[in-house]
């Protein structure tokens, strides 16, 4: 039979279809006709049926495998793999991990009480279907003796470095690129991986693979704090359960659960980040007064579980001697949604709390309500609230405010961003406005508080509550 005749006739038969005529009948024309019919069937059929013929014929080439050993019906726990016939041993063995190789050899090495092998090759091939033939057992031994091939060693280095990194970050220990490279070199030496280079490119690829980035440390903690994390988490959980129990037992509606917190702001707020040119030695930010960036005032808003801002915002300004003269009061801007007070430092003290309750809270709160506030010394004195029987105060446990305090979880950051946007706009457009002046501070506080009372923020405030 001429293969070249078949190759030349088949394209003509496919091209001309039923119009094609053979010059003479032969074995080649019979084969071409069979191929043509098969191709047509594939093109026109709507479904396919596959038939597989399997054989167990195999020449066992592995020494000392006992055919009399017991067999079992266990199957390979890993996904089956297909190996091209033309791949060399090194490429094929990349399909197997070192753990998988050890698992196969341990299974093969099992012996009974008489010292005979428990598993034959047939049993091994059923359990570990990825292994093409018994010669791979010898190759597995060789790879394990050398700690695997180069790719497997690189994978081991990757896993080793990541485990050390993960352990360090769980303990809040700082890690840098130089540490990743040092760990990689240590593991490479342990695995006898010659010519290993802990390059910047390898370090960058490792970080991309594991979603690792450089971040600014935003909070410092001690080892004692980390050890108490479990206690703090339990304290927060118990407080949440207690609040929910109070709500159920007293049948309180969402308007009767109020949360309050203090927010300190500098007289001039500046951005800590900006778009600029890459490679510049120093990145500067413009402010109008360094003094205004170190002196502050304090805000105290209130919100409820219903998603509403409760009453006006309480503002404590910094004034010399802690008092405002009559002449200053006359010139001060009067905002209907701001209750104004002052102190020498611009910070609140326990003497401000009764004034805040009487002017910024009670007139706008339900007849009886639950007040949730943190453990700040100025507001946790029980004697303050004895004069206000309609107020039942619950103290949020220390070090749990970032987990369960509604203001810390959602509200404060969004409110501060409004202030920062206003300051940035004044600086960027070089507007002739002194944001550190008393009246401008009051106007800005009034404006931002008015924005936070908008309906669009109701969902945010609801989400911030536990």
Automatic annotation (TrEMBL):
Start-end of Acidic residues biased regions: 62-87
Location of region: Disordered: 59-87
Gene3D superfamilies, alphabetized: Homeodomain-like (1.10.10.60)
Top-rank taxon: Eukaryota
Protein name (record): DDE-1 domain-containing protein
UniProt source species: Adineta steineri
């Amino acid at each position: 039979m001429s293969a070249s005749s078949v190759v030349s006739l088949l394209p003509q038969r496919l091209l001309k279809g039923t119009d094609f005529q053979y010059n003479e009948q032969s074995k080649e024309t019979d084969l071409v006709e069979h191929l043509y019919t098969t191709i047509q069937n594939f093109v026109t059929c709507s479904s396919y049926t596959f038939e597989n013929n399997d054989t167990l014929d195999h020449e066992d080439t592995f020494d000392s495998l006992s055919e009399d050993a017991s067999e079992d019906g266990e199957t390979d726990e890993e996904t089956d793999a297909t190996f091209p016939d033309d791949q060399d041993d090194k490429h094929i063995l990349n399909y197997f991990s070192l753990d998988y190789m050890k698992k196969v050899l341990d299974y093969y090495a099992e012996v009974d009480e008489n010292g005979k092998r428990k598993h034959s090759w047939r049993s091994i091939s059923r359990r570990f279907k990825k292994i093409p033939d018994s010669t791979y057992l010898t190759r597995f031994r060789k790879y394990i003796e050398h700690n695997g091939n180069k790719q497997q060693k690189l994978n081991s280095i990757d896993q080793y470095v990541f485990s050390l990194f993960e352990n360090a970050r769980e303990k809040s220990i700082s890690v840098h690129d130089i540490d990743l490279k040092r760990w990689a070199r240590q593991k490479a030496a342990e695995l006898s991986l010659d010519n290993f280079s802990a390059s910047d490119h390898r370090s960058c690829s490792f970080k991309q693979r594991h979603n690792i980035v450089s971040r600014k440390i935003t909070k410092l903690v001690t080892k004692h704090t980390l050890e108490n994390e479990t206690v703090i988490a339990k304290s927060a959980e118990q407080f949440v359960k207690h609040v929910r129990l109070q709500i159920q037992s007293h049948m309180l509606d969402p308007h009767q659960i109020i949360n309050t917190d203090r927010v300190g702001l500098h007289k001039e707020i500046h951005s800590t980040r900006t778009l600029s040119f890459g490679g510049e030695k120093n990145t500067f930010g413009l402010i109008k007064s360094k003094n205004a960036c170190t002196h502050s005032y304090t805000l105290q808003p209130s919100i409820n579980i219903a998603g509403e801002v409760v009453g006006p915002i309480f503002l404590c300004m910094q004034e010399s001697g802690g008092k405002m003269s009559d002449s200053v009061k006359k010139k001060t801007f009067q905002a209907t949604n701001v209750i104004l007070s002052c102190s020498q430092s611009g910070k609140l003290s326990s003497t401000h709390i009764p004034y805040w309750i009487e002017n910024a809270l009670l007139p706008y709160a339900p007849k009886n309500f639950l007040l949730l506030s943190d453990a700040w010394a100025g507001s946790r004195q029980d004697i303050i609230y004895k004069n206000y029987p309609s107020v039942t105060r619950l103290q949020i446990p220390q070090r749990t405010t970032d987990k369960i305090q509604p203001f810390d979880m959602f509200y404060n950051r969004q409110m501060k961003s409004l202030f920062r946007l206003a300051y940035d706009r004044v600086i960027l457009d070089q507007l002739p406005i002194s944001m550190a002046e008393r009246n401008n501070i009051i106007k800005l506080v009034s404006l931002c508080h008015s924005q936070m009372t908008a309906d669009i923020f109701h969902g945010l405030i609801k989400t911030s509550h536990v």
